[in-house]
Amino acid sequence: MIQSRLVELIARKKAGEISPPESVELNALLKDDEEAQLMLHKADLIWNALLEPGGTEVDYVDERWDKLSRRLQENSTKEIKMQPVSSRRLLRYSIAASVAAAVLTGAVILFNAGRSGMKPKQNIVSTKNGSRTKIELPDGSAVWLNTGSKLIYSDAFGEDLREVHLSGEAFFDVAKDAAHPFIIHANEIDIKVLGTAFNVRAYPDDKRTEATLIRGLIEVSFKDRPADRLYLKPNEKISVMNGEIRSQVRDDLPGAAIASSPGKSADEPVISFSRVTYQSPRDSTILETAWIKNRFVFRNKSFEELIKDMERWYNVCIECKNPELLLQHFTGSFYHESVAEALDILKLSYPFHYTIDKNQNSVVIQ
User: Fold this and answer.
1) In which band, very low, low, confident or very high, does the pLDDT at 128 lie, cut at 50, 70 and 90?
2) What pTM was computed for the model?
3) In order of start, what are the domains of the chain with their CATH numbers?
């Protein structure tokens, strides 16, 4: 209805028949409406293209009127009297209005056709190292983003699929909608859900991509291997080695450890399953989702991997010049500790020295 009224008002303006109240109405329709303004711009381009060089719409209509008059004279044996100037002007405006409406309607069709071919706008939500955030997607699903993470979804989210791309770590609490599956693309894996809560860790520079299910059911598939699908139940976790899944020949997928990568030890499976890890028998905190509660929890993690997490968590650059230290494994939990306090706690398990450069926001470990 609004678009039809817009066509009418612009046509009346082109014909010179628009009244002051209608001008106010037209300006109101055009104000802050980029689509309407673009439609008007396209209509002007098409309208101007119809005119002869140096001519005006009045010249165009006068020519149409003259042709019409000659045709009437040729087809009639009776004398035809020319209409008064006022009638001629009225017809001229009428023809101009008709042409303007037709041109504008064509512009609407072209504009809508152009929009249908446009790619949906991409929405990007990201967090820097040292910061975390929570967002709500258009379908009501809640997403917590951990440090140094990025979530991408388009304006077409929810039309057919609810589809997102994740780089980093996020906890999803997905709203139920059986008609529109929710799909997460994360490094080596794609995760399909209908309504559930789970954690995905997919940092590009990590060795592995992980998905941990807290509630519901999720389906996990693999890049370039769409026929292979696995299903996780609550409190189960899948871990996939980055950069290896594409090169593996399909194996029997169910099991605790699957398809070890060539040249790697048997304790480094490309795909593995495990149960969620609790911080301790007396603590119900789940290691994989502790970050949501602002707790930095880790278990039996090599120092090489640990300092990557610490860089993200504390927003600091850490350089370790002690190769033996990189191979050591640590278990612990930090909450409000600073990076210096965390390092002091870690070196109680394996002695090392460190210096902090506050100006460079960096740490050097010897």
Assistant:
1) very high
2) 0.64
3) 2-116 (no CATH), 122-280 (2.60.120.1440), 295-365 (3.55.50.30)
